[in-house]
Specification:
It is a single chain. The protein is an alpha/beta fold. It has two domains: 167 residues, HUPs (Rossmann fold), CATH 3.40.50; 114 residues, TPP-binding domain (Rossmann fold). Helices cover 25% and strands 25% of the residues. The chain is built from nine helices and 17 strands. The strands form four sheets. A seven-stranded parallel sheet has the order 7-11-6-1-4-5-12, with helices on both faces. The protein has a five-stranded parallel sheet with strand order 14-13-15-16-17. The protein has a three-stranded antiparallel sheet with strand order 8-9-10, with no helix packed on it. A hairpin with a 2-residue loop joins strand 2 and strand 3. Helix 3 crosses helix 4. The termini are far apart. Belongs to the ETF alpha-subunit/FixB family. Its cofactor is FAD. Keywords: Electron transport, FAD, Flavoprotein, Transport. InterPro entries: DHS-like_NAD/FAD-binding_dom, ETF_a/b_N, ETF_a/FixB, ETF_alpha_N, ETF_asu_C, ETF_asu_C_CS, Rossmann-like_a/b/a_fold. The electron transfer flavoprotein serves as a specific electron acceptor for other dehydrogenases. It transfers the electrons to the main respiratory chain via ETF-ubiquinone oxidoreductase (ETF dehydrogenase).
């Protein structure tokens, strides 16, 4: 029977919602057990959160000072050691997961399965290729551990709050590299919802025109309580920071409502929103590709349409 180890993603003592989505994928394998591994210098708070996720059988903690910051070079040897006896190792397909999972796969001598969007069988998965234009079925070797990243936009988060999984400490005695060290973490701060977990997202593109004009996107997003995203063209033009980029080379998101404002809809951008619930497009070019995927489209000047929408909202 399959036994799955899910690597917890956390920061600042809080569990990232991506972990519960990876647990949903693990549940689809229909294995014998699902364990969550928390690596930290002080894992108790994160472990307590993970223990509440429905479907989790155990939470395993590894407490080492080297785990104070999520450095892939430090975490991967410990995960590879902890993976002994597990048929699957899952990590969310976030910046964290994409950083650590390949190292784990290399240490275990297996080929990684990336961006799992559905589980067909214990060792058979579907994942997008060619910027999401095609879906490929991948079959992993059943004789080796499956290391996979889970496309979080394709999975809903497992329910939390009803489970009470036991928390057990693991002693992982493996040498860690000395060539990598943590220097500092610089991250943007915002009172707006997190882009990757928000139920509503408003994104601006090159059509917004300038960094100053991008304020109209921020204000409208605040009006409806949405997170703010951007196309790569807007980021490259310097209208907004890189962490706001949505698309193949940015963040893959699946909000209930996605509003694309001044975004033409290049395939690389559409890859990032293919799992969104309702897509609304506003663009002055009625032939823009974004309208081919939009549920609702408004053709016109965004600088006239947005104030009218704000007025209608009251």
């Amino acid at each position: 029977m399959s036994k799955i180890l899910v690597i917890a993603e956390h920061l600042g003592g809080k569990l990232n919602a991506s972990t519960a989505r990876a647990v949903s994928a693990a549940a689809a394998v229909k294995g014998e057990a699902i364990d969550v591994l928390v690596l930290s210098d002080a894992p108790d708070a994160v472990a307590a959160e993970a223990a509440k996720i429905e479907g989790v059988n155990r939470v395993l903690t590894v407490t080492r000072p080297e785990n104070a910051h999520p450095l892939a070079a430090m975490l991967a040897p410990q995960i590879a050691k902890a993976a002994d006896g597990y048929s699957h190792v899952f990590a969310p397909s976030t910046t964290f997961g994409k950083d650590v999972a390949p190292r784990v796969a290399a240490l275990l001598g297996v080929a990684q399965v990336s961006d799992v969007m559905s589980v067909e069988a214990a060792h058979t998965f579907k994942r997008p290729i060619y910027a999401g234009n095609a879906i490929i079925t991948v079959e992993a070797d059943a004789n080796h551990t499956v290391v996979a990243t889970i496309r979080t936009a394709s999975w809903s988060a497992a329910a939390s709050g009803t489970n009470t999984a036991p928390v057990e400490a693991l002693a992982i005695d493996v040498p860690l590299p000395t060539h990598t060290r943590f220097v500092e973490l610089n991250q943007g701060s915002s009172d707006r919802p997190d882009l990757q977990s928000a139920s509503k997202v408003v994104s601006g593109g090159r059509g917004v025109g300038s960094k100053e004009n991008f304020d109209i996107i921020y204000k409208f997003a605040d009006k409806i309580g949405a997170a703010v995203g951007a196309s790569r063209a807007a980021v490259d033009a310097g209208y907004c920071p890189n962490e706001m980029q949505v698309g193949q080379t940015g963040k893959i998101i699946a909000p209930e409502l996605y509003m694309a404002i001044g975004i033409s809809g290049a395939i690389q951008h559409l890859t990032g929103i293919k799992d969104a619930g309702t897509i609304v497009a506003i663009n002055k070019d009625g032939e823009a590709p974004i309208f081919e995927v939009a549920d609702f489209g408004l053709v016109g000047d965004l600088f006239k349409i947005i104030p009218e929408l704000e007025a209608a909202l009251g």
